[in-house]
Protein backbone atom coordinates (compact mmCIF):
# COMPACT_ATOMS: atom_id res chain seq x y z
CA UNK A 1 0.00 0.00 0.00
CA UNK A 2 1.23 3.49 -0.79
CA UNK A 3 0.46 6.65 1.09
CA UNK A 4 -0.69 9.82 -0.67
CA UNK A 5 2.27 11.78 -1.96
CA UNK A 6 4.54 8.75 -2.20
CA UNK A 7 5.69 7.43 -5.55
CA UNK A 8 4.09 4.23 -6.76
CA UNK A 9 6.16 1.21 -5.82
CA UNK A 10 4.93 -1.98 -7.44
CA UNK A 11 4.68 -5.00 -5.18
CA UNK A 12 6.56 -8.22 -5.93
CA UNK A 13 3.61 -9.77 -7.81
CA UNK A 14 3.41 -6.85 -10.21
CA UNK A 15 7.18 -6.83 -10.79
CA UNK A 16 7.21 -10.60 -11.34
CA UNK A 17 4.47 -10.42 -13.99
CA UNK A 18 5.71 -7.26 -15.69
CA UNK A 19 8.68 -8.95 -17.44
CA UNK A 20 6.73 -11.79 -19.09
CA UNK A 21 3.88 -9.46 -20.08
CA UNK A 22 6.29 -7.06 -21.79
CA UNK A 23 8.09 -9.96 -23.48
CA UNK A 24 4.80 -11.32 -24.83
CA UNK A 25 3.81 -7.89 -26.11
CA UNK A 26 7.14 -7.44 -27.90
CA UNK A 27 7.01 -10.94 -29.39
CA UNK A 28 3.45 -10.34 -30.54
CA UNK A 29 4.47 -7.11 -32.27
CA UNK A 30 7.42 -8.85 -33.95
CA UNK A 31 5.22 -11.76 -35.05
CA UNK A 32 2.62 -9.38 -36.46
CA UNK A 33 5.36 -7.59 -38.44
CA UNK A 34 6.78 -10.79 -39.95
CA UNK A 35 3.39 -12.23 -40.85
CA UNK A 36 2.09 -8.96 -42.30
CA UNK A 37 0.55 -8.99 -45.75
CA UNK A 38 3.17 -8.18 -48.41
CA UNK A 39 0.81 -5.64 -50.02
CA UNK A 40 0.53 -3.83 -46.67
CA UNK A 41 4.32 -3.75 -46.21
CA UNK A 42 4.85 -2.50 -49.76
CA UNK A 43 2.09 0.08 -49.27
CA UNK A 44 3.71 1.33 -46.06
CA UNK A 45 7.02 1.78 -47.90
CA UNK A 46 5.30 3.53 -50.81
CA UNK A 47 3.42 5.86 -48.45
CA UNK A 48 6.72 6.94 -46.88
CA UNK A 49 7.77 8.07 -50.36
CA UNK A 50 4.48 9.79 -51.28
CA UNK A 51 3.24 7.08 -53.60
CA UNK A 52 -0.21 5.49 -53.47
CA UNK A 53 -1.00 2.29 -51.64
CA UNK A 54 -1.29 -1.00 -53.53
CA UNK A 55 -3.73 -3.82 -53.03
CA UNK A 56 -3.16 -7.52 -53.48
CA UNK A 57 -4.31 -8.85 -56.84
CA UNK A 58 -5.09 -12.53 -57.57
CA UNK A 59 -3.93 -12.38 -61.22
CA UNK A 60 -0.62 -10.75 -60.31
CA UNK A 61 -0.14 -13.22 -57.45
CA UNK A 62 -0.64 -16.12 -59.88
CA UNK A 63 1.89 -14.59 -62.31
CA UNK A 64 4.37 -14.14 -59.44
CA UNK A 65 3.72 -17.68 -58.16
CA UNK A 66 4.35 -19.17 -61.61
CA UNK A 67 7.65 -17.24 -61.78
CA UNK A 68 8.74 -18.27 -58.25
CA UNK A 69 7.83 -21.93 -58.92
CA UNK A 70 9.78 -21.97 -62.19
CA UNK A 71 12.87 -20.41 -60.61
CA UNK A 72 12.72 -22.86 -57.67
CA UNK A 73 12.23 -25.91 -59.90
CA UNK A 74 15.19 -24.93 -62.10
CA UNK A 75 17.23 -23.55 -59.16
CA UNK A 76 17.97 -20.38 -61.11
CA UNK A 77 17.09 -16.73 -60.56
CA UNK A 78 16.12 -15.39 -63.98
CA UNK A 79 13.39 -13.01 -65.14
CA UNK A 80 12.99 -14.96 -68.39
CA UNK A 81 12.78 -18.48 -66.93
CA UNK A 82 9.17 -18.70 -68.19
CA UNK A 83 9.53 -16.38 -71.14
CA UNK A 84 9.51 -12.61 -71.65
CA UNK A 85 7.92 -10.58 -68.86
CA UNK A 86 5.61 -8.61 -71.16
CA UNK A 87 4.04 -11.87 -72.39
CA UNK A 88 3.71 -13.32 -68.88
CA UNK A 89 2.08 -10.17 -67.46
CA UNK A 90 -0.35 -9.65 -70.37
CA UNK A 91 -3.28 -11.38 -68.58
CA UNK A 92 -3.22 -8.59 -65.97
CA UNK A 93 -4.41 -6.04 -68.58
CA UNK A 94 -2.29 -3.31 -67.02
CA UNK A 95 -0.76 -0.39 -68.87
CA UNK A 96 2.42 -0.61 -66.78
CA UNK A 97 4.04 -3.43 -64.84
CA UNK A 98 7.35 -4.34 -63.25
CA UNK A 99 8.83 -7.41 -61.61
CA UNK A 100 11.27 -7.94 -58.75
CA UNK A 101 12.85 -11.33 -58.08
CA UNK A 102 15.17 -12.55 -55.33
CA UNK A 103 16.35 -15.66 -53.54
CA UNK A 104 17.79 -16.57 -50.20
CA UNK A 105 15.57 -15.07 -47.53
CA UNK A 106 12.89 -17.13 -45.79
CA UNK A 107 10.67 -14.14 -44.90
CA UNK A 108 9.14 -11.45 -47.04
CA UNK A 109 10.19 -8.51 -44.81
CA UNK A 110 13.87 -9.46 -45.30
CA UNK A 111 13.34 -9.83 -49.05
CA UNK A 112 11.59 -6.46 -49.15
CA UNK A 113 14.54 -4.87 -47.33
CA UNK A 114 16.87 -6.33 -49.97
CA UNK A 115 14.74 -4.78 -52.74
CA UNK A 116 14.55 -1.43 -50.95
CA UNK A 117 18.35 -1.31 -50.79
CA UNK A 118 18.73 -1.98 -54.53
CA UNK A 119 18.13 1.08 -56.73
CA UNK A 120 16.46 -0.78 -59.63
CA UNK A 121 14.24 -2.88 -57.34
CA UNK A 122 13.39 0.21 -55.27
CA UNK A 123 12.34 2.01 -58.46
CA UNK A 124 9.92 -0.84 -59.23
CA UNK A 125 8.50 -0.76 -55.69
CA UNK A 126 7.87 2.98 -56.10
CA UNK A 127 6.40 2.70 -59.61
CA UNK A 128 4.27 5.81 -60.10
CA UNK A 129 0.56 5.00 -60.27
CA UNK A 130 1.16 1.43 -59.09
CA UNK A 131 -2.20 0.09 -57.94
CA UNK A 132 -1.94 -3.67 -57.52
CA UNK A 133 0.68 -6.19 -56.48
CA UNK A 134 1.22 -9.93 -56.34
CA UNK A 135 3.95 -11.57 -54.26
CA UNK A 136 4.88 -15.25 -54.09
CA UNK A 137 7.66 -17.56 -53.02
CA UNK A 138 8.72 -21.14 -53.65
CA UNK A 139 11.43 -23.29 -52.09
CA UNK A 140 13.81 -25.21 -54.34
CA UNK A 141 14.17 -28.91 -53.60
CA UNK A 142 17.51 -28.85 -55.46
CA UNK A 143 19.33 -26.23 -53.38
CA UNK A 144 16.94 -25.39 -50.49
CA UNK A 145 16.79 -21.70 -51.44
CA UNK A 146 13.56 -19.72 -51.30
CA UNK A 147 12.83 -17.86 -54.54
CA UNK A 148 10.65 -14.73 -54.50
CA UNK A 149 8.77 -12.91 -57.23
CA UNK A 150 6.79 -9.68 -57.04
CA UNK A 151 4.75 -8.15 -59.84
CA UNK A 152 3.47 -4.59 -59.43
CA UNK A 153 1.12 -3.03 -61.97
CA UNK A 154 -0.86 0.09 -62.66
CA UNK A 155 -2.36 2.28 -65.34
CA UNK A 156 -5.36 0.03 -65.72
CA UNK A 157 -7.91 1.06 -68.33
CA UNK A 158 -10.98 2.38 -66.61
CA UNK A 159 -14.18 0.52 -67.56
CA UNK A 160 -16.47 2.52 -69.82
CA UNK A 161 -20.15 2.93 -68.97
CA UNK A 162 -22.43 0.57 -70.95
CA UNK A 163 -24.11 3.48 -72.78
CA UNK A 164 -20.78 4.95 -73.88
CA UNK A 165 -20.04 2.08 -76.26
CA UNK A 166 -23.39 2.44 -78.04
CA UNK A 167 -22.93 6.20 -78.41
CA UNK A 168 -19.42 5.77 -79.79
CA UNK A 169 -20.57 3.16 -82.30
CA UNK A 170 -23.46 5.35 -83.41
CA UNK A 171 -21.23 8.41 -83.82
CA UNK A 172 -18.77 6.72 -86.19
CA UNK A 173 -21.04 6.50 -89.28
CA UNK A 174 -22.00 10.18 -88.92
CA UNK A 175 -18.36 11.19 -88.68
CA UNK A 176 -17.55 9.16 -91.77
CA UNK A 177 -20.34 10.79 -93.78
CA UNK A 178 -19.22 14.25 -92.67
CA UNK A 179 -15.76 13.60 -94.17
CA UNK A 180 -17.22 12.98 -97.64
CA UNK A 181 -16.37 15.95 -99.82
CA UNK A 182 -16.79 16.84 -103.47
CA UNK A 183 -13.51 18.71 -103.82
CA UNK A 184 -10.40 18.57 -101.64
CA UNK A 185 -7.91 21.42 -101.91
CA UNK A 186 -4.89 21.71 -99.60
CA UNK A 187 -6.53 19.40 -97.07
CA UNK A 188 -9.82 21.33 -97.03
CA UNK A 189 -13.06 19.64 -97.96
CA UNK A 190 -15.36 21.75 -100.12
Verbal overview:
The protein is of the alpha+beta class. Helix content is 47%, strand content 19%. It contains seven helices and six strands; from the N terminus they run H-H-E-H-H-E-H-H-E-E-H-E-E. About 17% of the residues have low confidence.
Can you give keywords for this protein?
190 residues; two-stranded antiparallel ribbon
The run of helices and strands is HHEHHEHHEEHEE
Number of helices: 7
State the assembly state of the protein chains.
single chain
**For the terminal residues, how far apart are their CA atoms?**
104 Å
Helix/strand-derived class?
alpha+beta
Identify low-pLDDT runs: 17-35, 165-178
Q: Biggest β-sheet, characterized? A: 4 strands, mixed
The overall pLDDT, averaged over residues, is 79
What is the number of beta strands?
6
Please tell me how large the radius of gyration is.
28 Å
Helical amount? 40-55%
Shape: globular
Strand content: 15-25%
Strand order of the largest sheet: 1-3-4-2
Brief characterization of the structure:
The protein has 190 residues and is an alpha+beta fold. Helix content is 47%, strand content 19%.
Task: Break the fold down into its secondary structure elements and pairings.
Layout: H1 12-34, H2 38-48, E1 55-56, H3 58-74, H4 85-89, E2 94-103, H5 108-116, H6 119-125, E3 130-139, E4 146-156, H7 162-178, E5 184-185, E6 188-189
Parallel strand pairs: 1-3
Antiparallel strand pairs: 2-4, 3-4, 5-6
Amino acid sequence: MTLPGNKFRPNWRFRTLLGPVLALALCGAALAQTSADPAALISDFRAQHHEGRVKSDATLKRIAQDQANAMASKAVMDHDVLGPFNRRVAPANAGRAAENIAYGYESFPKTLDQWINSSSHRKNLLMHEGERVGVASAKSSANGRTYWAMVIAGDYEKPKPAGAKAKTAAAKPKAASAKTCRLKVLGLCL
